Amino acid sequence: MKKFLYCLLFLGVSLHVADFNSLTRSNRDKQLASLFSESIHLGIGSEKLWSATSADNWGFVRQSATWARGNSGIIDSLILALKNAGYFNNSAPRNDVLTNVNLSGFGSATLTIKISTPTAGISSTAYTGTKTFNHFFEIKKTGASIPSLQLFFDDPNTTLGNDGALVYYRLVDFGNPSFANVGDVITESYTGNDSIYGTKFQTYTWRNGPENTSWISKHGRVVLTEVDSGRQLCFRSVVRLTFTKLKAVNPSGATSLDNLKTACNTAQGTGSSDQIYYALAYMQKFDSPFQTTAKATFTMSATRPETICNLSVATVPGAQLSYGIFNINGYVTDQLAAAAVPADYPSPTVGGSDFMSVDEAFNRTYVAFGASISGQAALGTVKQYETTSKAFLDAFDGSDQNLTFK
């Protein structure tokens, strides 16, 4: 569907591309407004990552795939809009600043477009050091002091074999009712390629989530890897939640949440901590019916237990979530032993030459940068973009860790 929409967008504007540079300022701005309004709406999507309306143990699985598909289009759609506007018709450097451009659902904006004009010293949460990107695009509300979106990229045709693409955006600025109450949350997404396994990866990292019904977490990271020669998606994520905020958005569950908080703190020796971390890994087939095998847990400590907060299954039968299976219709069942997962679903325990099993993906979740994972010597130590440890997320309380507009 996304490719079909892109084709429609291209057909609608391609007749005007060749004449873009000869348009008057008024007509040029109208065309840009149309292109970028459409690309933003296509790219950001309308799905919340995990809202309180589905805050059960597996709500994150059901919504995360849709959310990731919607948000993954933002880089593609913005670059496509630039291409359709004629910015890559030749290799000549461009540095355009367009003011008072009216974007649908956004309002009056200043657009800054730098083509073949390298921007150096760009840092990110997803890689160490800095990178230099060949091209840059920015949207800023008229009169605002900070941008609403920044995109850095090397090549309009691919994110592979170069420095990739990096985007920052504030969802609240883009007029989508689904994100009207997400506050000051800033999302960073980086796309690149990995030489160890898979064909490409994409990260989503956010901080300062409002912890309300629209955006239930404070900080979090999602790591997506396209693997198995493009036949499967490997999804890994950790989000930080608090019991206090969970009770505020789900008052009817306050007693159960209080009981769980007490049990978790006792089992993991974390005193009276209010923070709890949700770690999830799943493998999903790209072909319909999108069969998915998932493994998840909750923890309050720096370790990742097999059961919720390392609670005994004998005492708390529901403490063992994994494995859960899903398909195009959503949740199928959970608490399956590995041998009980149907053979046509991604394997919990057996990976391949360029993809991990669900267990391997789970073992590489809630981990620190540079950590060595048992049984995964061929994959090397944990890379910066895979970092999802408690310490990494907690550090956002006092530092932006490079997750900020440039």
From TrEMBL:
Signal peptide location: 1-18
Keywords carried by this UniProt record: Signal
Protein name per Swiss-Prot or TrEMBL: Uncharacterized protein
Source organism (scientific name): Leptospira perdikensis
